[in-house]
């Protein structure tokens, strides 16, 4: 029960009994006192009148024993007196009867049995009064009849007298009991309210204060929440709210602790997804950034529960073609609980089309705001329709608020890495004028192959989405080691001598060492940073049969990312014109790739390459 309800009910009851006590004390008690005093006074008057009648009758009896003339004269006088006393007695009886009826009504018929007995006696006395009146009016008065009537009157009066005393005593007892019950109930209400205050002051408030300290504690994961006894529903509400807040706080702290070791966007979203998948039951987390320079929204990364994302890295949409532009203005979270219906209304939306292909039915978009500017969006999605509510918005916004700095840091790190690799690629390209669009093409070829491998899901060729993104990011720097090769060798148009070729073969090791040094310098932050970049640059010239360079590794000893880039690099080298060779046709390139499969190139990766040949052809035609 609610303490608020108890207080209200107690207050209403207390007010009722206070008013009742006031009514009893200032209205009922005075009225009852008036009634009892009146009834006692009337009975006393009746007693005096009855005694006077009795005295007069006795005097007549004595006078009847004297002179007849004296008796007749005395009789006439006493008849007048008797009639007068009888009239007063009759009037008093009627008044007493009305008083008793009022007492009966006031006491809610509680004493009706006793009062009815008295009323019967009163009616009997009224009849006797009438009989006395008739006896006095007769021509010949019979003393026996007269004395009998007077005796009956006196007997009834005695009954009424004793019953009035009994009635008054009972009424006084009722008043005493009523006042005592009222006082006891008021005391009980006060005790209950004081108990509530005592519980509030000595248990609830101290534990709430302790809970607040737990909320602000630096060791919130280890602190124990104080136990709150839920005598009242308000206490239950407070307890649930405290547990919810602390649980959410712990969730955020756990998430923060996990993200402290993360410096790459993909890892940030992966950690976020694993946490929120359990917490909210969502099936997808996505991240996009706002490029105000190009006025586009850029999909950065996405994780889908049990499936491959379709809407992912590389998807770019202009401001004017996306509903996200509205969020840039109002900066509020938006729920779309029916992707299918939204797609019917906006059939040309590429984002909705891809989400629908992923079987996403509900989507929650939360803006990431820094310095009052939206710099990105977090997307929470579900396979279920009508999944999100204000509760998820509240939790999602708190999560976004807590991780926005981390995401901004991860994004900043990503930008730095991208700019660095781009700069390296430009350096290489400037040193080797024959490369042309070689870097662009081979990056796209590498991406196609990597995603084809992930789709086939071969147990010996497992590759994550994060690794695919790193392949896309770092394939461009596979020849970064050429910065250490003299221009005379790098730009020589004739065939290289053996010594020159031995120098040229050092470029994978030079490039690998560049990223190794970077990785070791950043090891305290993330030991895996630049690992893929190092593997690609150091091993992309190794051969499947072990006859490659610089280390002579073979088969699966060669990192998978290097084997992928190797296929892409060889294919584009075949398809490109060099100062020392002409470009082969697309068909000839494919034939050569098949011929060197299982010797120079990984046969399984070549198989995937051939399965993706139409996508390879699209890139080939676009850039040739």
Structural class: alpha+beta
Main beta sheet: 6 strands, antiparallel
Mean pLDDT: 82
Tally of helical segments: 20
Alpha carbon gap, first and last residue: 79 Å
What is the CATH superfamily label of the largest domain?
Hypothetical protein af1432
How would you describe the shape?
rod-shaped
Helix content: 55-70%
Beta-strand content bin: 5-15%
The count of strands amounts to 6
CATH architecture of the largest domain: Orthogonal Bundle
Domains, number: 3
Low-confidence stretches: none
Query: H/E order of the elements?
Result: HHHHHHEEEHEHHEEHHHHHHHHHHH
Top-tier CATH class of the largest domain: Mainly Alpha
Give, in spatial order, the strands making up the sheet with the most strands. Answer: 3-2-1-6-5-4
According to CATH, the fold-level topology of the largest domain is Hypothetical protein af1432
User: What's the Cα radius of gyration?
Assistant: 54 Å
Structure commentary:
This protein has 624 residues and is an alpha+beta fold. The chain has three domains: 3-193, Four Helix Bundle (Hemerythrin (Met), subunit A) (Up-down Bundle); 262-405, GAF domain (Beta-Lactamase, 2-Layer Sandwich), CATH 3.30.450; 432-623, Hypothetical protein af1432. 67% of the residues lie in helices and 7% in strands. Strands 3-2-1-6-5-4 form a six-stranded antiparallel β-sheet, with helices on both faces. α11 (438-456) runs antiparallel to α12. It is rod-shaped and about 185 Å long. It starts with a helix and ends with a helix. The model has no long low-confidence stretch (mean pLDDT 82).
């Amino acid at each position: 029960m609610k303490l608020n309800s108890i207080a209200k009910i107690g207050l209403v009851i207390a007010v009722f009994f206070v008013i009742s006590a006031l009514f009893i004390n200032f209205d009922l008690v005075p009225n009852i006192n008036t009634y009892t005093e009146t009834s006692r006074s009337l009975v006393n008057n009746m007693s005096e009148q009855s005694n006077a009648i009795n005295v007069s009758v006795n005097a007549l009896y004595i006078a009847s024993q004297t002179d007849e003339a004296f008796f007749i004269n005395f009789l006439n006088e006493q008849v007048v007196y008797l009639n007068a006393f009888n009239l007063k007695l009759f009037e008093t009886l009627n008044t007493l009867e009305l008083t008793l009826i009022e007492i009966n009504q006031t006491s809610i018929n509680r004493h009706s049995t006793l009062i009815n007995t008295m009323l019967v006696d009163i009616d009997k006395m009224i009849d006797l009064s009438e009989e006395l009146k008739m006896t006095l009016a007769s021509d010949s008065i019979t003393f026996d009849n007269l004395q009998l009537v007077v005796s009956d009157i006196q007997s009834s009066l005695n009954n009424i007298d004793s019953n009035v005393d009994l009635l008054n005593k009972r009424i006084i007892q009722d008043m005493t009991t009523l006042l005592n019950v009222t006082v006891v109930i008021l005391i009980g209400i006060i005790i209950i309210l004081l108990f509530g205050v005592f519980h509030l002051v000595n248990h609830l408030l101290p534990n709430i204060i302790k809970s607040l300290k737990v909320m602000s504690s630096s060791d919130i994961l280890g602190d124990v929440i104080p136990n709150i006894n839920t005598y009242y529903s308000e206490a239950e509400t407070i307890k649930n709210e405290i547990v919810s807040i602390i649980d959410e706080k712990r969730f955020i702290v756990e998430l923060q602790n996990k993200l402290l070791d993360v410096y790459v966007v993909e890892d940030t979203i992966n950690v976020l997804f694993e946490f929120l998948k359990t917490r909210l039951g969502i099936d997808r987390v996505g991240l996009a950034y706002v490029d105000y320079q190009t006025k586009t929204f850029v999909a950065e990364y996405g994780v889908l529960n049990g499936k491959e994302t379709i809407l992912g890295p590389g998807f770019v949409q202009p401001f004017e073609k996306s509903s996200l532009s509205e969020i840039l203005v109002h900066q509020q979270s938006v729920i779309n609980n029916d992707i299918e219906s939204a797609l019917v209304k906006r059939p040309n939306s590429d984002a909705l089309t891809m989400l629908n292909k992923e079987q996403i039915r509900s989507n929650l978009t939360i803006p990431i705001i820094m310095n009052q500017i939206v710099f990105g969006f977090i997307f929470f999605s579900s396979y279920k329709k009508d999944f999100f509510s204000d509760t998820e918005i509240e939790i999602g916004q708190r999560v976004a608020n807590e991780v926005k700095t981390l995401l901004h840091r991860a994004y900043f790190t990503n930008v730095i890495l991208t700019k660095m690799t781009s700069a390296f690629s430009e350096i290489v390209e400037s040193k080797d004028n024959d490369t042309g669009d070689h870097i662009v093409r081979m990056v796209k070829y590498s991406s196609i192959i990597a995603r084809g491998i992930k789709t086939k899901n071969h147990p010996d060729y497992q590759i994550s989405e994060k690794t695919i993104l790193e392949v896309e990011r770092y394939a461009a720097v596979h020849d970064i080691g050429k910065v250490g090769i003299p221009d005379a060798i790098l730009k020589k148009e004739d065939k290289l001598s053996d010594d020159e070729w031995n120098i040229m073969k050092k470029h994978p090791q030079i490039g690998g060492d560049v990223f190794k040094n970077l990785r070791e310098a950043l090891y305290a932050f993330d030991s895996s940073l630049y690992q893929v970049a190092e593997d690609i640059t150091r091993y992309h010239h190794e051969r499947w049969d072990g006859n490659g360079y610089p280390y002579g590794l073979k088969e699966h000893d060669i990192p998978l990312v290097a084997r992928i880039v190797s296929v892409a690099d060889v294919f584009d080298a075949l398809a490109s014109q060099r100062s020392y060779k002409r470009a082969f046709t697309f068909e000839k390139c494919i034939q050569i790739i098949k011929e060197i499969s299982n010797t120079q190139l990984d046969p399984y990766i070549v198989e995937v390459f051939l399965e993706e040949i139409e996508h390879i052809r699209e890139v080939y035609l676009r850039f040739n």
